Structures are given as structure tokens and as C-alpha cells.
Fold:
Amino acid sequence: MATSIRIEDHTIWFKHIDEPKMRERLARLKDDEEINLDVDGVVGRWKRMRTGRDGRPTNAIRPEGAMKAVWNEWFKTRKGEIIELREARLADDYLAANSALFSEWSSPEDEEAFRDL
Structure:
């Protein structure tokens, strides 16, 4: 699920995303929920913006961590360019999501037996 967007702001507004599945995926994020995105070949963290004081949702995501510096630089030097955007799944995210599959291995006895490994 990839889409093209134009670098227009310090955030990515959902209304600027043409691909409906990507727009819906981002709209389902809760306030401050993070997502990893591959933006023009750079994978970074993005966070859903909080609902405004007036109760209206802010339909945008903003860059977090190192991605913030990348995006701010691009905003200064590449504003107006069209770039590719797609969701990225990091190995850490994949393992965390699947760790519940092996809950039978998460017992105090197992922790005691294998703590030194």
C-alpha cells in the first residue's frame, strides 16, 4: 500500500493522501499512536496528532525522533516535491506483535530456568 504525497507542511495531512487504504489506516490511529513509515526510502517514526481543545480531531501525523530532523530538512530543501510513502514494518514491531503467540513460554518457572542464557 504505497502512495505519493507532496511535501507541503511540517506534518502529513490525511487529506493529502490519495490512496484510500493508507488514508484510512492513518485515520484509525489513536492520539499519539506511532507508526513506522518508509518515506522516500527513509524509514522513520510518525505520530498521530492529538485531538484539538475544541474536540475536533487533527487529521495529520507528525515526524518523531530522527525522522523529525529528516522531514524538517526536506521541508526546507524539497518543499513541493512528490515523494513515495508506505507503511514499514520493523522486525521489533513484528516480534512484539507475535510475542503473545508464545505466552505459554512466559512463566516464572521458565524465566528462572532460562534467565542466564
Q: What stands out?
A: The chain has a mean pLDDT of 88.
